[in-house]
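Regression check, 2-acetamido-2-deoxy-beta-D-glucopyranose case 530:
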Amino acid sequence: MQMQLLRSVLCCVVLTICGLDADAYRILFMGPFPAPSHWMWLEHFQRDLLERGHHVTSLNNHPTKKPHENLTEIILNPSFDIPKHFPKKNIFTMRFASDFQNLQLWWKIGELTTEHALQDAQVRRLIDSQDEHFDLVILEQFFHEAFLMFGHKFKCPVVTIGTMGYADNMDHAMGILTPWSVIPHLLLSHTDKMTFSQRAYNAYLSLYDAVIRRWHYMPLMQQLAEKYFGSAIEGALPNVLDLERNISLMLINSHRSVDLPRPSMPGLINVGGAHIRPAQKLPADIQSFIDNATHGVVYFSLGSYMKSTDMPPEKTEQLLQAFGRLKQQVLWKYENASIGQLPPNVMIRKWMPQNDILAHPNVKLFISHGGIFGTQEGIYWGVPMLCIPLYGDQHRNTIKSVREGYARSLVFSKMNVEDLVSNIEMLIYEPAYKQSALEVSKRFRDNPMHPLEEASYWIEYVIRHRGAGHLKSQGAHMPLHQYLLLDVIGCALLALWLAVWLPWRMLRKLYNWWAAAAATAQKQETKKRL
Ligand SMILES: *[C@@H]1O[C@H](CO)[C@@H](O)[C@H](O)[C@H]1NC(C)=O
Ligand SMILES: *[C@@H]1O[C@H](CO)[C@@H](O)[C@H](O)[C@H]1NC(C)=O
Ligand SMILES: *[C@@H]1O[C@H](CO)[C@@H](O)[C@H](O)[C@H]1NC(C)=O
Ligand SMILES: *[C@@H]1O[C@H](CO)[C@@H](O)[C@H](O)[C@H]1NC(C)=O
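Current build output:
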């Protein structure tokens, strides 16, 4: 009896000690891109890892508002000033930029922000550090491939988290070639049912992306990696292209219910919707504002990067006029204490708890810039949307939302008071929009487990299995001609050619020989006769 008790107590102690040791990992978590929306999404993953008891060293641009005893922050200082390089006022008046220009823009931003971050004194200390140990490096899957060198430096596996959805290069890194016949390029808003000209353009853009990325952009990343890691790491540095093919796992912001089906690999995990939490209590003033609105509420926000205060004054005026004509109450995320003549049904606040507001059943419409995270929140809570896209993926998200039937769109530079009022009223009073919104919402919520929980599960899985090499297909490391079976097809063609050509040659030889023999025989015959 006593022996048994002793044994179970011992067991308990051993389990507790081992459990603590085995389960708390040291993770280097990096989000060098300065745009706030990217970090707001990434921080959800970081927080969940902390809550699971791991130790996180976090390199990013935004000091946390919720400190944690196991969180060490490396805040880039100063952080990269995007508006200085890409002025905001150009965004509001932006003319059509070609897909090719957009790609170039991403590469340029990637190059500038990567170098800016690698120059930071604290980052250089991390690069030079001798006694640091990490079990895993997590990096935003964006345009910062030089940072993959941290995985090599700390000899640990790498997981990336993608904000923007799938790009061809993610497929390649995991070992599949994206079929351009059915998968539109990241920048395009086609469906998987493309016409001939759409497929042709898609193939052209995708090929351009693949070639310039491989031969221009990635060599730049290699140069940056060598410039900043060269002195800190002994021996030759690996190629960033190889490090990319060595990424263990990619967590991608995509969801089966709203994004196109595509071929995949076990190392590609969809975590769209990971940032959506159960609604929390609203601040008292906003709560009573929404509760009291007998005709419902319209919520308006341009997101975290573009500020409503950056808008040209005539647009602000148009919005105010339009809102003033509505029966509904309007909540506007406006980043200044005053806005001029505020209609009585409009309330402005510098900051709004967007997720919790959209969760309120009295919110009838979300006017947004079509950013991916806001769109997903709107979808989750089943709120119809009026999208006014400005830049980047916002146009693409908007086209998709309109196609799904729960949204309408306006062009910012051309919108006027009439357009605003009629679109807002249509979205509120025609029930088809709400119906579509509820349908999509139901699909979007139907998950075997919460996407954030799934993400953390796979992150721990990669650490538990030391990089989980078994998730990776050899396709990632295979030369293109082998992957496409060009060598086999070449061989088969050669065999076929030989099988036809050789017998034919032999027959011809035989025939010639016979013909020659016959001719000689005939000649001799003639000679004899003569
Ligand atoms: C921080 O880490 C220590 C050691 O791994 C652990 O015992 C503790 O519970 C963690 N703190 C929190 C708040 O999770
Ligand atoms: C790829 O990752 C594994 C561990 O996940 C590591 O052992 C290997 O050295 C890495 N290869 C390169 C080129 O860094
Ligand atoms: C909302 O209604 C309650 C009770 O009807 C009232 O006390 C409160 O002042 C109202 N709030 C607003 C913002 O109108
Ligand atoms: C912001 O508010 C201040 C006063 O609070 C006002 O003077 C200023 O014009 C406002 N700026 C904008 C862009 O509305």
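Comparison notes: The chain has three domains: 21-274+450-477, 284-445, 482-508. Residues 482-508 form one domain. No diff flagged against the previous build.
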